[in-house]
Design brief:
The complex is a heterodimer of chains A (about 325) and B (about 220). With about 325 residues, chain A is mainly α. Chain A is built from 18 helices and no strands. The mean pLDDT of chain A is about 90. The radius of gyration of chain B is 16 Å and the shape is globular. Chain B has a single domain, classed as Spore Coat Polysaccharide Biosynthesis Protein SpsA, Chain A (Alpha-Beta Complex). Chain B has a seven-stranded mixed beta sheet with strand order 2-1-3-12-5-13-10. Chain B has a four-stranded mixed beta sheet with strand order 4-14-8-9. A three-stranded antiparallel beta sheet of chain B has the order 7-6-11. Chain B starts with a strand and ends with a helix. Chains A and B meet through helix 1, helix 5 and helix 6 of A and helix 1, strand 9 and helix 5 of B.
C-alpha cells in the first residue's frame, strides 16, 4: 500500500473496499466451516479440550485472518479464561456445557452484561446479575475475575464491588479466593491485605493471618484513624494501577481530612516502592487535574524510591521531544 | 405531538440485548412532567424502515434512536438532551460525530469528537476521540449508535435498505432541512457500546450510494 495515500481520500476508501471484498471472498465464506471445526472440539472430550482449541487458534490461518471476528474472539477469550481457572470441578468453568462457538459467544455476552451492570447499574440489580450469571453459567470465581479484567472499564472497581457482595452474603470462601487474586495481581492495597488476614483467621486459623499481617504498614506519624488511612490509601492504589478517576475521589477525601495533602505525602512516602512508570502515570494524573505541586512531589518521591530511574525516564522523554522538534 | 414525551427506539434481533438495554433505560431519571416510552422494532428489514415505522408509531416529540447494544449509563441523559434541545435550531444530537466530514465519507477517518466506552471484545475502554469542550460541538455527521431528535424527518429507506450509512444520511437530511447536528460535551461517557467488531460486508456498497446521493 502506498503510505502517501491519505486515509480520508477516495483512493484509500476504494483500496479498503477491495480488501474487504477479498477478505469476504477468501476467508469470510470459510468462517462457518472454521467454526464447525471449533464446535467439534467443544463437543468432544473434556480432557485436553483447552489445548486442542489452542492449537487450532494458533494455526497461521486463524491468527492471520480471523482474530478480528466475533466467533474467533469468543473462542480466544474462552481459552484465555479456561487457562486461568484453577482446575475447575466437573461441570464447572468457562467451557463447561459449551458445545458450540455460538454458545461461547452467548456465555461471554452474559458475563459482559453482569460486569457492565456492576459498573453502571444500581447495586441491587447488579448484585442480582452477578449471582445469576455465576450460577447459570457455572463460572468459577477465577474465571469470572479474569473476565472482569478483560471486559470491565474499571476492573478494580468491579472487583471491589464483588468483594462487598460476597462479604454481605457471607460467602467467605469465594471472598478469600477473590482477595488472594487481587492482592497478588495488584499488590499494595492495605485494607485488602488486612481484610484477607481477618478472613484467614476466621476460616483457616492463625498461621496464614500472622504471615499476611507482616505485610501491613505501620504508618508511624499518621494522626488519623486506621480506617480513614485505608480509605485514602485504597484510592492511591486505584491511581497507581491506572484508574485516573481516583484523583477526584482522593481530592474529595483529602478535603475531609485535616491537613489532607500532608497526609497524602506521608502515605506516599510509606508505600513500598512502585515501578517508575507508576510514579510517572500518577504524577501525570495530578498534573492533569491542575495539582502540579502534588504531581511534582510524586515525582520527587518516585525518584528517591527508584534510585533516580524516574528522572532518567523523564530526561529520555525530553531528549526524544527535542530530537523530534 | 406530545411535547413532554421522550421515546427510545431500537431495532432488535436479540431478546438478551433488548432486556439488558431496558434495564439501563429504566434506570434513567425522567424529569418532572415528562414521560418516557420504549419501542422495540423486531424483524425490521432495514434500519431506516424500522426507524420510520417507530417514528410513525410514537407521538413523542423527542426520539432517541439507538442500537440494541448501546447502554445509556448517564442517569441524567434525558435532562441533558432536553437542555440542548431548548435551542430550536438543533435538530439532531449524537454521542460521537465528525466535525469535518472526510472526503471519502468514512466517518472514522475524519477527526471524530465525543466520548464513549466501547467493547472491542479483547478489551473495554474509552474510545480515542477528541474532547468537546463547549456545551456542544456542531458536526457534519453523527454515528448511528445513538441519535436523538426533536423533529421528525423521514429516514431515507428509499436509498438505505440495509444497516449502513443510514446515520450519515440522516445527519445530511437534518442539515439540508436547516437544522444543526451536534455532539454534547460529556465529561464521562454517557453510553457504553458493546459493539465488538465492525461488519463491513455491505458498508462500501452503501458508501457509493451515499456519495451518489449527497456529494
Amino acid at each position: 500500500m502506498n503510505p502517501e495515500i491519505r486515509k480520508d481520500s477516495e483512493e484509500y476508501a476504494r483500496q479498503e473496499a477491495e480488501r474487504e471484498d477479498v477478505w469476504q471472498e477468501k476467508y469470510g465464506r470459510k468462517l462457518p466451516e472454521l467454526c464447525g471445526r471449533f464446535d467439534e472440539i467443544l463437543r468432544g472430550e473434556d480432557e485436553g479440550k483447552t489445548e486442542r482449541l489452542e492449537v487450532l487458534l494458533q494455526s497461521d490461518e486463524v491468527k492471520e485472518h480471523y482474530q478480528m471476528t466475533e466467533e474467533i474472539a469468543a473462542v480466544t477469550l474462552g481459552v484465555m479464561i479456561a487457562k486461568r481457572e484453577r482446575c475447575p470441578r466437573k461441570n464447572e468453568g468457562i467451557l463447561s456445557g459449551i458445545v458450540s462457538v455460538k454458545q461461547m459467544e452467548s456465555r461471554l455476552r452474559k458475563m459482559r452484561f453482569a460486569i457492565y451492570g456492576m459498573e453502571f447499574l444500581d447495586a441491587e440489580v447488579a448484585e442480582e446479575g452477578l449471582y445469576q450469571c455465576m450460577e447459570e453459567e457455572r463460572l468459577t470465581i477465577i474465571g469470572f475475575v479474569t473476565g472482569v479484567v478483560i471486559m470491565a472499564v474499571h476492573p478494580l472497581r468491579v472487583m471491589l464491588f464483588m468483594e462487598k457482595c460476597f462479604e454481605r452474603r457471607k460467602m467467605y470462601g469465594i471472598e478469600i479466593v477473590l482477595l488472594e487474586y487481587i492482592t497478588q495481581m495488584w499488590e499494595g492495597n492495605q485494607r485488602m491485605v488486612c481484610k484477607l488476614a481477618e478472613l484467614y483467621e476466621r476460616m483457616q486459623g492463625e498461621e496464614n493471618a500472622v504471615c499476611l499481617r507482616k505485610q501491613l504498614v505501620d504508618y508511624p506519624g499518621v494522626w488519623v484513624e486506621r480506617e480513614q488511612i485505608y480509605l485514602l490509601q485504597e484510592k492511591l492504589w486505584h491511581l497507581r494501577y491506572g484508574d485516573q478517576e481516583a484523583v477526584e475521589e482522593l481530592l474529595e477525601q483529602m478535603g475531609e481530612t485535616h491537613r489532607g495533602e500532608e497526609l497524602l505525602f506521608l502515605l506516599l512516602e510509606q508505600e513500598k516502592p512502585w515501578t517508575p512508570e507508576q510514579y510517572l502515570s500518577v504524577a501525570d494524573a495530578w498534573f492533569a487535574a491542575g495539582r502540579d505541586h502534588i504531581g511534582q512531589r510524586v515525582l520527587e518521591i518516585g525518584n528517591k524510591e527508584t534510585d533516580g530511574e524516574v528522572q532518567k525516564i523523564l530526561q529520555n522523554m525530553r531528549n526524544r521531544e527535542k530530537t523530534d522538534e | 405531538m406530545n411535547e413532554r414525551k421522550i421515546c427510545f427506539i431500537m431495532c432488535v434481533n436479540s431478546l438478551e440485548y433488548e432486556a439488558e438495554q431496558i434495564k439501563y433505560l429504566q434506570a434513567l431519571r425522567v424529569p418532572e412532567g415528562y414521560e418516557m416510552e420504549v419501542l422495540s422494532i423486531w424483524d425490521a428489514i432495514s434500519m431506516t424502515a424500522g426507524y420510520n415505522e417507530a417514528m410513525g408509531a410514537s407521538d413523542a416529540k423527542y426520539k432517541v434512536y439507538l442500537h440494541q447494544d448501546v447502554f445509556i449509563i448517564e442517569r441524567d441523559f434525558i435532562e441533558k438532551i432536553l437542555r440542548i434541545f431548548k435551542i430550536k435550531e438543533i435538530g439532531l444530537i449524537g454521542m460521537v460525530g465528525a466535525v469535518c466530514f472526510p472526503e471519502n465519507a468514512i466517518m472514522w477517518y475524519g477527526g471524530r469528537v465525543g466520548n464513549l466506552y466501547g467493547n472491542m471484545r479483547y478489551k473495554t475502554q474509552k474510545s480515542k476521540l477528541r474532547t468537546v469542550h463547549e456545551e456542544y460541538c456542531t458536526v457534519e455527521a453523527v454515528d448511528g449508535l445513538l441519535m436523538a431528535t426533536q423533529y421528525d424527518l423521514p429516514w431515507r429507506e428509499d436509498l438505505f435498505d440495509g444497516w449502513d450509512f443510514y446515520d450519515v444520511s440522516q445527519s445530511r437530511e437534518f442539515l439540508k432541512a436547516g437544522y444543526q447536528v451536534v455532539v454534547p460535551r460529556q465529561e464521562k461517557p454517557w453510553c457504553l457500546h458493546d459493539d465488538g467488531f465492525l461488519n463491513l460486508k455491505n458498508y462500501y456498497r452503501y458508501r457509493e450510494k451515499f456519495l451518489r446521493e449527497y456529494c
